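Hi R.,

Here's the chain you asked about this morning:
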Amino acid sequence: MSRTIGIIAGSGIYPEAFIDAAGAKSPDTRLVMAAFHGETRDELANEVAAADWFRVGQLGKMIKFFKKEGVDEAVMVGQIAPKNLFDLRPDVRTMLLLARTKEKNAESLFGGIADELAKDGITLLPATTFLEDMMPAEGHVCGPSIKEAAMEDARYGYSVAKETSRLDIGQSVVVRNGTVLAVEAFEGTNACIRRGGELGRGKEVTLAKVAKPNQDFRFDVPVIGPDTVKNCVQSGVGVIAIEAGKTLMLAGEEVSAMCDEHKVSILAL
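And here is the predicted structure, written out as tokens:
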């Protein structure tokens, strides 16, 4: 029997990458998209069997749409801007969810959404579904070979990012010569890159991005892509260290070409 998967689609190229991968690997799968005003690219609605538009916080309305379309599996792909999370106009179902959730961090809130979907018979799939081959294995990924000094910074940044992610602060850090220049928090990876690059003055700066311990891959997957490389180039970051087998590299061919052109190295640890 063919599957019907509901896509909860945020911004960026992640939703498009999922749609393309699903079409290539499971062409019989019917895709239905819940899109968000100010986040999801308009043209994606033409690439799925059905789509509807929502405000962030309209959980009840979204679930009704999925049920009407016969969805029994869903996937969260793409980001929602922090300004929209703070501009919630929740429906009744979302208000009840927020009232039950003591810790208002991303993991608790998205876990609550997964529970609400499950109540209506909708299973939330890993956000890596159909995209497993976009998660680099350990070793040099692309760009120039890495010097030993930069390798030491990559390992150091990786260990620090593992600790900050364990504390649910952020999953990215920027380091230079064994010194932490910037730690990601609510502002996101790109802002962390820019701040770290400013402080490092664009010289031998390394970005490390990792998964949380016990990461729930249904709704929180470390991702890099062309925008990551572009921000690194603009900020003077020359090495990107990611966690092997747990980080999605979207638009891999474009990323590789950009790294070759701008002399940025990507390493999976």
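One quick note: The mean pLDDT is 90.

Cheers,
M.
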